[in-house]
Design goal:
CATH superfamily of the largest domain: Glycosidases
Number of domains: 3
Bound molecules: ligand MIG
Number of helices: 18
CATH topology of the largest domain: TIM Barrel
CATH class of the largest domain: Alpha Beta
Distance between the termini: 76 Å
Radius of gyration: 29 Å
Number of strands: 51
CATH architecture of the largest domain: Alpha-Beta Barrel
Strand content: 25-35%
Helix content: 10-25%
Largest sheet: 10 strands, antiparallel
Structural class: alpha+beta
Length: about 950
């Protein structure tokens, strides 16, 4: 076993940027960049066009190398077009990403509406869309009701390296010899066609060059977003004079801010937005991918203008996006929106929606590398009790295992893991007994880490089994691939193989995973995969997976598959009854179906708190709502003020976990003096009180693909001033959150979007007087949060020790009136942990509407039923014009009763108390 010190020094080296590639050190990038914008050498063979119910197919030919490519164009239900380009007759099949699309998309028949010399026009069934295919050069222009939205191959950057036999196999023809003589050895090396060096690492490319690429012009757009994960601004930057955005999952410890290198996870989805339209490009490719962005203004194209008119020509923006991937085929989905919410639906239709998290996982998580032993766990758990801070989950990092053998326990530190879990659980049970005199099985939870690397140790059953079954990824010579990771020499399960996933999922069965109970959930780390001493700290690309695919093809999918198998395992251990919780560091398009992600090893500095906002917004836009950044910053020691500010921000973000590195000082919330403890307690308490709203947002993410955390432009698509805002955001459609990310801030500048909107202080209920950009004074006590007029937010009337504790705490509604004195909002309730909501329709989905001084509760989805004794106890109406004289409440068919109210003339907030209105029934409150 390597001593820990040796391992961390391996890791320290990783901070050195030279361990990671700059774009010009990537051979396929250099090759593709030799193709400059200009006229494409690809031409459509119009004679080859065939039309079927499913698609339109034709061939294109490269004028120089004469290689034929097969193009397929599909229209998919719901305003999506798909373009596939593969070799017409490849030497062997090329990799096509499996398992990411949730099903084969439902296609619609395209019509050929026009075919003449050099042009083919396809139209959608409803004729809203037209695809103008130009033959020479090959281009596709996509129009929506006459408006050109995007052009494919508009700069002629379609690039496709056809498979070739290795040079040694080739018969010496005159042509080949010529090629050989003009390509010196150096040039060969520079192109990296059959092998590529990086430092001491050699990547041998058994199949030679296989790179693909294409460009898209987005007309009228100069705001583009998406393609996580980078430590970058919300708005994607022009890459003309620097590195392209890289999508290559890497473990970069202490990653720098404002860098386009890929970290941990990738979602190849790009969104483009202009006031009247949002579009998306989903480039389905799991090999290393680079994206170049170039935004410019061009003169508006209008034919036959007079000189005077030309002088007045408007400049219109245009964004060119160039995608380059190392391998695979071109398989791209053009999402036509036209709204941002349509894009989210379209992407979810292809890759699935956010899994509905168990309620506990929306509570606060306390993590550290490491909570040392059972005593430590109990002490930290007791600390939350003693300081009256709500929390739901305590986490165990890698040190809990027996020598980094996952699924095992360190026998000295964790002698009786089951008993420890009983302790966490019993605490709850007793509390239930004492407080509400009913016996329900309601535990606190435990999350343990399960990394993908498996220690090479024949006596470790997991290793022995996988070895025997041939379940590890192989090296290029067919031996099990071995790399160094935490346990020392390690092998890596080949999660791309469905049998391996099944076997791995089985490891989570209670019987198999000794010491596990049903309060134990899982954290998948290091699944890029991280390989110490590997090229760029990951697996070499010539390693070999299931069905003989090279690692280069599947690299960005490795973590996706591990989380898939883990989530499946947790579902299966409960015989399909319980929702899993799995946090993953690496991810891909579709990871939202399996759980949560976090942004990895950030640093305890203000700049990292600041960048976490655009990073989380970008991940949310890419379909993964359940995400968060380590509260406090993982590396280093946050000053107390930073820690407090981070808690306040995290409390209003989807995944909320405090975590810290091994070398950092302990930082449980009560270690920074009474005042800071109290402020952190308040932040966490606000989170717990807000959970009914947050849970409802997750239900919307799950069923309607609406992101939980939204950049302002998504909610205010017509307001140009919101397009680049990344220091504040919307939580759902009702809350505007502006974290404080500056040290000793006395004020923050808040943009209140939408001139016709009304905003209320979320805590003081006061209507904000000024619109637009406003300086708001802040204290350390909290961060600015505002409720949007026209919304109803469901909350709990108070917090408790954990989510389970709070089940019976009653509800409170904050009804914020808009300019018409109306408001609307929703509440989703279910048991919070099982799949009964799905299989047995055991849920409540309610709507609250305020209109003409009547607040009514009605059912949104009649198919759901769920019994709860929990009532709506209090309603606060914000922006209520004048003191009422009389307020009554009545069940739809029942008696009226008078309601006690107080009216605050200073804030115009009307508070109704002691309502006791059932959550699961229709009722009305009338105010006169
Ligand atoms: O690089 O398991 O991002 O959250 O505490 C160290 C130890 C390996 C990296 C994760 C971090 C975790 C740590 N891991």
């Amino acid at each position: 076993t390597l001593p820990l010190s040796a391992l961390s020094s391996v890791q320290d080296e990783a901070v050195d940027k030279s361990n990671f590639k700059k774009c010009n050190q990537i051979a396929f990038y250099r090759r593709q960049k030799l193709l400059r914008p200009g006229k494409s050498l690809y031409r459509v063979l119009l004679d080859s066009v065939t039309l079927s119910d499913e698609n339109v197919k034709f061939q294109i030919i490269h004028e120089e190398n004469k290689v034929l490519l097969q193009v397929e164009i599909y229209e998919i239900e719901g305003n999506i077009f798909r373009l596939k380009i593969d070799e017409a007759s490849p030497l062997r099949p090329r990799y096509k990403v499996p398992d990411v699309l949730i099903k084969e998309p439902t296609t619609q028949r395209l019509l050929i509406s026009h075919k003449e010399a050099g042009i083919l026009v396809l139209s959608s069934v409803n004729e809203d869309y037209k695809l103008r295919v130009t033959a020479n050069p090959f281009q596709v222009e996509l129009q929506s009701k006459g408006e050109t939205v995007m052009t494919v191959n508009s700069n002629g950057l379609l690039y496709f390296e056809h498979l070739q036999p290795p040079p040694s196999d080739r018969k010496p023809t005159a042509q080949n010899e010529e090629a050989a003589s003009d390509s010196s050895k150096e040039k060969q090396e520079d192109l990296g066609l059959w092998q590529e060096k990086f430092g001491s690492f050699l990547d041998i490319k058994a199949h030679g060059p296989t790179s693909v690429g294409m460009d898209f012009s987005l007309h009228g757009y100069d705001h583009v977003y998406g393609i996580p994960q980078h430590t970058e601004t919300l708005l994607l930057k022009n890459t003309s004079d620097g590195d392209a955005y890289r999508l290559y999952n890497l473990d970069i410890f202490g990653h720098k801010i404002h860098d386009k290198i890929g970290i941990y996870g990738s979602v190849p989805l790009l969104l483009a937005h202009k006031p009247n339209r949002t579009s998306g490009i989903f480039w389905l490719n799991s090999s290393e991918t680079l994206v170049d962005i170039s935004t410019k203004a061009i003169a508006e194209h209008t034919p036959s203008r007079s000189a005077a008119e030309t002088a007045k020509q408007r400049a219109v923006p245009l964004t060119d996006v160039r995608w380059m991937s190392e391998s695979g085929i071109i398989d791209v989905f053009l999402l036509m929106g036209p709204t941002a919410f349509d894009i989210f639906k379209q992407f979810a239709q292809l890759t699935g929606t956010q899994a509905l998290p168990p309620l506990f996982s929306l509570g606060y998580h306390q993590c550290r590398w490491n909570y040392e032993d059972e005593q430590d766990v109990k002490a930290v758990d007791a600390g939350f009790d003693a300081h009256d801070i709500p929390y739901d989950v305590i986490w165990l990092d890698i040190e809990h295992t027996d020598g980094k053998r996952y699924f095992t326990w360190d026998k000295k530190k964790f002698q009786n893991p089951r008993k420890m879990q009983e302790h966490l659980r019993k605490k709850k049970t007793q509390a239930q007994l004492i407080l509400i005199m009913c016996f329900i099985f309601l535990p606190w939870q435990l999350v343990v880490i399960v990394d993908p690397h498996i220690k090479v140790d024949p006596s470790y059953i997991l290793y022995a089994q996988a070895k025997e079954k041939g379940y590890f990824v192989k090296d290029r010579n067919g031996q099990d691939f071995e790399g160094i990771c935490w346990p020392g020499s390690s092998c890596y399960p080949d999660f791309t193989n469905p049998d391996v996933r099944k076997w791995y999922a089985d490891q989570f069965a209670f019987k198999t995973y000794k010491g596990s109970t049903n309060i134990l959930f899982v954290w998948n780390d290091m699944n890029e995969p991280s390989v110490f001493k590997g090229a760029e700290l990951t697996m070499q690309k010539d390693a070999v997976h299931y069905n003989n695919w090279e690692h280069r093809e599947v690299h960005n999918l490795y973590g996706f598959y591990q989380q898939m198998a883990t989530a499946e395992g947790l579902i299966r251990r409960s015989s399909g009854k319980e929702r899993p919780f799995v946090l993953t560091r690496s991810f891909f398009a579709g990871s939202q179906k399996y759980g949560a992600v976090w942004t990895g090893d950030n640093t305890a500095e203000w700049s990292y708190l600041k960048i976490s906002i655009p990073m989380l917004l970008t991940i949310n836009m890419a379909g993964i709502s359940f995400c968060g950044a380590d509260v406090g910053g993982f590396i280093g020691d946050p000053e107390p003020e930073l820690l407090v500010r981070w808690y306040q921000a995290g409390a209003y973000q989807p995944f909320f976990r405090g975590h810290s590195n091994m070398e950092s000082k302990r930082r449980e919330p009560w270690l920074f003096g009474e005042k800071n403890t109290q402020i952190i307690r308040r932040a966490i308490t606000e989170r717990y009180v807000l959970l009914p709203y947050l849970y409802t947002l997750f239900y919307r993410a799950h069923t309607a693909a609406e992101p939980v955390m939204r950049s302002l432009w998504i909610e205010f698509p017509g307001k140009v001033e919101t397009f680049d805002v990344e220091n504040e955001y919307m939580l759902g459609n009702a809350l505007l959150v502006h974290p404080v990310t500056e040290k000793e801030a006395k004020t923050v500048t808040v943009l209140f979007p939408g001139s016709e909107e009304i905003w209320y202080d979320f805590r003081k209920f006061k209507r904000m007087e000024d619109a637009g950009t406003v300086k708001i004074p802040v204290t350390l006590e909290n961060i600015p949060v505002f409720q949007r007029g026209g919304t109803v937010i469901p909350l709990k009337t108070s917090a408790g020790k954990s989510t389970e504790w709070m089940i019976d705490i009653s509800y409170e509604l904050h009804v914020a009136l808009d300019a018409e004195a109306c408001a609307i909002g929703e509440l989703y309730v279910d048991d919070g942990h099982s799949f009964q909501y799905l299989h047995k329709k055991q849920f409540l989905y309610r709507k609250f509407t305020f209109h003409k001084n009547i607040l009514s509760s009605s059912c949104v989805d009649e198919s759901g039923q769920y019994h709860t004794t929990c009532a709506v106890e209090r309603v606060i109406i914000l922006g209520f014009g004048k003191q009422p004289t009389f307020v009554t409440a009545s069940a739809k068919d029942g008696k009226k009763k008078e309601v006690v109210f107080t009216y605050d003339t200073k804030t115009s907030a009307l508070t109704l108390e002691n309502l006791a209105l059932s959550v699961d029934a229709d009722w009305e409150i009338c105010i006169s």
